[in-house]
Description:
The complex is a heterodimer. Chain A is built from 6 helices and no strands. Chain A is mainly α. In chain A, helix 2 (42-52) packs antiparallel against helix 3 (54-72), helix 2 packs across helix 5 (107-130) and helix 4 packs antiparallel against helix 5 (107-130). Chain B has a 4-stranded antiparallel β-sheet with strand order 2-1-7-6. Chain B has 2 helices and 7 strands, in the order αβββββαββ. At the A-B interface, helix 5 and helix 6 of A face helix 1 of B.
Amino acid sequence: MMIQTTKDDYRIAGLAALAISIHIAEAAFPSPIPGIKPGLANIITIAALLRFGWSTALWISLLRVFVGSIVLGTFLSPTFILSLSGAISSILILGLAQYLPGKGAGPVGYSILAALAHMAGQFTSAWLLFIPHPALFNLLPVLMSAALIFGIINGIIVSGMLGKRQKT
Amino acid sequence: MKTADYLILIFALALIYTLFYRFWGSGENGQYVIIQTADEKRQYSLQHDQDIYVTGPLGGSHLQIKSGRVRFVESPCPNKVCIRHGWLERQGAVSACVPNQVMINITGDNQEYDAIIF
């Protein structure tokens, strides 16, 4: 029996492939501080959220974490667990943010929320599972500032991307 | 940028400000200093300014407690690492004059850990 595929499936597959490529490309760059990276793959998630809705964004972000980790060889390792908990918290926050007053936020707002939630989720699981040391909290302000900065940058990229697409 | 975007940005900035304030604000200052020498261990309050003289294998070390802080003033050791360490005030801060076997350690009511290894 053939599995029926819908247009949505193709779209999710295509966008997820894009997100995974970005994720892997980014993993190749060394990060100055562990735990800080631009999270450029989030651009795809946010763009998908705005254009196609939350469930598409959910699929893309989970596929990215799973496939990305299998390709990079970190599947089920601490890196994977951190990445997954970050992705889950950020997608949950994005789901809640749909109900913000004024029919949800724009790309920049969503991107900031996603970045902060990703960092917070990742940090919480790092603290609970791997390094239950109070000194870890000294890193939190720096990590969250980095998340905010990259969240804003990614949000601007998303709005540029969607704006161009609407004009053509 | 929609209204919600500005709200989110303000929320994010407030959150980060709170985090910096909470975790990078002045760390908890200790209330006591434990001075440990080769043969005794005594605790002093940091509230009372005083000079403390202890003796070790090399001779006398001079420590000073002043306005909630403590430091080595003089020590008969060759490298003077303990003196260069300067003032200690945070909970968990440690300094030592190893040649003279004097160790000082700041504690407080809610002791923080130096390290956890497992």
